Amino acid sequence: ATILRYIESVGDFANTDLAPALVYAQEIFSSNSQYYILDIREPQQYINGHIDGAINISTVQLFNIVDSLYNIDPVKKIVVVSQNGQASSYYTCLLRIAGFNNIYTLNYGMASWNIYFADEWLGALENKDQSYTNIEYPKKAFTHLPGLEFPAEIVSAKERTIYRVKEIIKKGFAKDINYSENISTGIANTHFLVCYGPVRLYNEFKIGGKGHPENTVWFKDATLFEFRSIYGLQTLPNDQPILIYSGDGQLSACMVAYLTVLGYDVKTLLFGANQLFYLRLNSEPALTEYIFSNSDIMNYPYITGN
User: pTM above the 0.85 mark?
Assistant: First the structure.
C-alpha cells in the first residue's frame, strides 16, 4: 500500500491519458535532434538497421543511462525504441513510475519506421477461431494487495518504488505472451483474463456478437481507469496469474509494468486485439485506432552497422 500511495501521489501515470507515452515516427524523423534515442533491441538487430542517432543499449543499462541523461537535461525527451513497441512501452511505464517524466516509447517500435522491421507486426494480424462470447463476467471480490519485501535499508516509499523498478528492469521483458502460447493452448484456464479498454473492445455490438474470449473480465481504461485503487484494482487476484490484452498491446504492456511494481503476477498479450479479431478492429470505427496496418509504416531511411 505504501508504494501504491506514493505512485498515486506523484501523478499515477499509468492511470492517465498520458499512458503509454507514445511518440510517433513522424515526430522523431522531423525533430531527431530533440530526442535522446535509446534502442533496446539485440545488438544484431541494431546492426541490421536503426534510426540515425540511436544508441544501442542493453536493458540492464537502461535505468542508469536514463538517470544520467535526466540529470544532464530533465527536459529533453528520451525515446525508447524496441522492435514492435511492446517492450519499450513496458520499460517506459516503469521509468515513468520511477519519476522520469521526459521518457517516451516509439509507437509500434521499428515496425513503424520501415517495412524492413515490420515482419512480426504484420505476421500478428489474425482472426482466431475461438469460443468468444458477449457474456459480461463479473470482477472478483475485493481483496488485499500482494505482499512485498524490501531490504531493511530501503525505507521510504520513493526508495521502495525505485528499488522495485530497478529489480523489475533487471529481469527483462519476461512479461509477454504470444497468442500461440496463450488462449489457444489453455493458459486461459489458469490465468485471470482481462480486457483493458473501451466497451467495444470487450463486446461485439451485433446480434449474436462474440466480443471476447470466455471468462474475460472487462476493466475500463479512459476515463474511468479501473486499475485505480478507488475502483477495481483490488478486485484483481493476488494468488493467480493475470493476462491482460488491450487494443494493440502497448497499453497493456504499460499496465503490466504498473501492476508488476505493485506485486501482481501479470503478463500482456503481445499485439493485443490485433492477434484476436483483426477484422473486427477494421470493421468498427470506434476500434480503428488500434489497428496496425501498412499506413503506419513510414518507410523512413535507416542506418546499418554500428
Answer: yes
